[in-house]
């Protein structure tokens, strides 16, 4: 549920709902303050309206990943954990596998989906992928009464994603930044980001303020130069599909991306990937791309 805290923001939401319905998301609807409160009791006095999608939801990234992995293993997939991918292997303008900490692995087709480190692997075959790393913050609270909040909350004027987990803890995000380390393997927290993220959640839903911060951390995200992921083959280079630069949205669309990439490799039509093609890298202005990568 995306919330408005002024009449002007409510007008923005009305236009947003109309746009979403026009794109086929017919369950998205505008709700007034009374219905917003029925969906999320305890909202602050400023909330006047919201857009709500009852078919939207949330999932636990770690549990979801484990479930997909287990399902793939039942169909014959093999996973190597704690194994570093060092380089891609090529032969006659075709990617043929990868060099790993456990030796070379040959493959009929390689999918490069190494998140914030995809550019490093791409560079081993002279391929430039314009992404940069951002450390995006998450905060976990101490558990409140379970079931206090059902929908995931955000607001037009706030950097906030707020949800409640099964054990009652609140999980806060919204794009607040930490600092990635120079080697892009870790991060440091920004105290001001923690304080501001927590404050905005408490302002929107005051019951959050009855809890304390249990812990805070950052995820290392690959941001593309235009905030749109690169998904698809590379022109002139066979045997390779890249899927990176998800710019903070990878988990939500991961099942659809996996299906589309598999279909594309299998030679089936995938019009949903047309505007995500890495070919747009070649048409971008080199100076703008480099400025993006160097930006802090």
Question: How would you characterize the overall build of this protein?
Answer:
- It is a single chain.
- With 296 residues, this protein is of the alpha+beta class.
- The protein folds into 2 domains: 62-130 and 226-294, FAD/NAD(P)-binding domain (3-Layer(bba) Sandwich), CATH 3.50.50.60; 131-224, 2-Layer Sandwich (D-Amino Acid Oxidase, Chain A, domain 2), CATH 3.30.9.
- It has helices at residues 7-22, 33-39, 61-74, 118-123, 191-204, 250-265, 286-294, and strands spanning 2-4, 29-32, 49-52, 85-90, 95-100, 103-106, 110-112, 131-143, 153-155, 158-164, 169-173, 179-180, 187-188, 213-224, 230-234, 237-244.
- Strands 2-3-1-9-10-11-8-14 form an 8-stranded mixed sheet, with helices on both faces. It has a 3-stranded antiparallel sheet with strand order 4-5-6. Strands 7-16-15 form a 3-stranded mixed sheet.
- A hairpin with a 4-residue loop joins strand 4 and strand 5 (95-100).
% residues in beta strands: 25-35%
Q: What separation lies between the terminal Cα atoms?
A: 31 Å
**Mean pLDDT score:** 94
> What's the CATH topology name of the largest domain?
FAD/NAD(P)-binding domain
What is the CATH top level name of the largest domain?
Alpha Beta
According to DSSP, the number of beta strands is 16
Oligomeric state of the chains present here: single chain
Kindly report the spatial arrangement of strands forming the biggest sheet. Answer: 2-3-1-9-10-11-8-14
């Amino acid at each position: 549920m995306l919330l408005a805290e002024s009449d002007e923001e409510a007008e923005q939401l009305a236009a947003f709902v109309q746009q979403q319905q026009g794109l086929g998301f017919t369950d998205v609807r505008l709700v007034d303050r009374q219905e917003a409160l029925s969906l999320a009791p305890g909202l602050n006095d400023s909330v006047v309206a919201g857009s709500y999608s009852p078919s939207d939801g949330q999932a636990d990234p770690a549990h979801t990943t484990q479930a997909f992995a287990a399902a793939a293993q039942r169909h014959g997939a093999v996973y190597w954990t704690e194994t570093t991918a060092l380089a891609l292997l090529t032969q006659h303008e075709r990617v043929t596998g990868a060099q790993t900490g456990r030796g070379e692995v040959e493959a009929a087709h390689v999918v490069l989906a190494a998140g914030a480190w995809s550019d490093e692997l791409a560079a081993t075959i002279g391929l430039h992928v314009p992404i940069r790393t951002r450390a995006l913050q998450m905060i976990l609270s101490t558990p409140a009464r379970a079931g206090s909040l059902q929908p995931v909350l955000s607001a037009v004027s706030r950097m906030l994603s707020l949800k409640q987990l099964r054990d009652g803890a609140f999980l806060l995000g919204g794009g607040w930044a930490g600092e990635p380390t120079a080697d892009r393997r870790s991060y440091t927290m920004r105290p001001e980001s923690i304080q501001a993220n927590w404050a905005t959640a408490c302002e929107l839903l005051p019951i959050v303020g009855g809890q304390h911060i249990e812990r805070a951390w950052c995820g290392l995200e690959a941001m593309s130069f235009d905030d749109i992921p690169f998904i698809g083959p590379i022109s002139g280079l066979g045997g390779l599909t890249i899927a990176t630069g998800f710019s903070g949205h990878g988990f939500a669309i991961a099942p659809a991306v996996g299906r589309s990439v598999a279909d594309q490799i299998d030679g089936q039509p995938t019009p949903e990937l047309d505007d995500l093609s890495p070919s747009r890298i070649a048409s971008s202005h080199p100076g703008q791309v480099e400025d993006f990568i160097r930006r802090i």
